[in-house]
Amino acid sequence: MPRFDGREWNEIRKISIELDIVPNAAGSAIFKFGETWALAIVDGPKPGKMSAGFEEGLLRVRYDMLPFSVPERKKPGQGRREIELSEIIQRALKPAIFLDELHGSIIDVYVQILNADAGTRTAGINAASLALALAGIPMKDLVIAVAVGKVGERIVIDLNKEEEDYDSEKLKNDPEKSKFIEYYGEGKATDIPVAILPSERKFTIIQLDGEIERENLKKALNLALEKSIEIREIMKKAILNKYESLKLPRI
């Protein structure tokens, strides 16, 4: 029996990418993990008001969710969670950027969640990474983000909303979903969003919501590293295909 949405334990959701969709931005991208859609827009690099005082460039991130990105309408504007995730995305991206080459410059990254089905921060990081590359920001590598975790007793990659909310005790009272207990096992879910620099096999963020044994944590992080290479190749191919299409025809 497969997962709620039919995937295998080590299978990521379908990825879709759209590049440079905001013509007036330095770089922009939409990254989709299944039904989680994130738009990122980059403004910069641009001179800061106190540029002489900056020893390196300044990266700023603003994360937000559109009011109808979730089933129950979200109040417009940033709340505490959005401010926290803005900081997390900034931390995930910063190690990849050669900010020391951007003295006195500011890079603003705006991340908007268009539709949410879990993994909004990871989709947002991937969209932002693409947008930064398209804006010509000097980077060591694309930053790749994905959620991994333990649902019940099973390690899985790229959790969806049903898996994030998994609770075997509650499912026992649901005739349609109780059959999934056989696949996932007893217990609740532990969600572990991570961001990775694949070329260095380095984690730029690791977050953990829930409980997990040390051995299972190692398995989960190794799975994330393995899948980050797969996601990077998809993102890299999307960028290469874009620039391939811009080549002038031979005369």
From TrEMBL:
<feature type="domain" description="Exoribonuclease phosphorolytic">
    <location>
        <begin position="11"/>
        <end position="138"/>
    </location>
</feature>
<keyword id="KW-0269">Exonuclease</keyword>
<feature type="domain" description="Exoribonuclease phosphorolytic">
    <location>
        <begin position="141"/>
        <end position="226"/>
    </location>
</feature>
<dbReference type="InterPro" id="IPR015847">
    <property type="entry name" value="ExoRNase_PH_dom2"/>
</dbReference>
<keyword id="KW-0540">Nuclease</keyword>
<dbReference type="GO" id="GO:0003723">
    <property type="term" value="F:RNA binding"/>
</dbReference>
<dbReference type="GO" id="GO:0016075">
    <property type="term" value="P:rRNA catabolic process"/>
</dbReference>
<dbReference type="Pfam" id="PF01138">
    <property type="entry name" value="RNase_PH"/>
</dbReference>
<dbReference type="InterPro" id="IPR036345">
    <property type="entry name" value="ExoRNase_PH_dom2_sf"/>
</dbReference>
<dbReference type="InterPro" id="IPR020568">
    <property type="entry name" value="Ribosomal_Su5_D2-typ_SF"/>
</dbReference>
<dbReference type="GO" id="GO:0004527">
    <property type="term" value="F:exonuclease activity"/>
</dbReference>
<dbReference type="InterPro" id="IPR001247">
    <property type="entry name" value="ExoRNase_PH_dom1"/>
</dbReference>
<keyword id="KW-0271">Exosome</keyword>
<keyword id="KW-0378">Hydrolase</keyword>
<dbReference type="GO" id="GO:0010467">
    <property type="term" value="P:gene expression"/>
</dbReference>
<dbReference type="Pfam" id="PF03725">
    <property type="entry name" value="RNase_PH_C"/>
</dbReference>
<dbReference type="GO" id="GO:0000177">
    <property type="term" value="C:cytoplasmic exosome (RNase complex)"/>
</dbReference>
<comment type="similarity">
    <text>Belongs to the RNase PH family.</text>
</comment>
<protein>
    <submittedName>
        <fullName>Exosome complex exonuclease Rrp41</fullName>
    </submittedName>
</protein>
<dbReference type="InterPro" id="IPR027408">
    <property type="entry name" value="PNPase/RNase_PH_dom_sf"/>
</dbReference>
<dbReference type="InterPro" id="IPR050080">
    <property type="entry name" value="RNase_PH"/>
</dbReference>
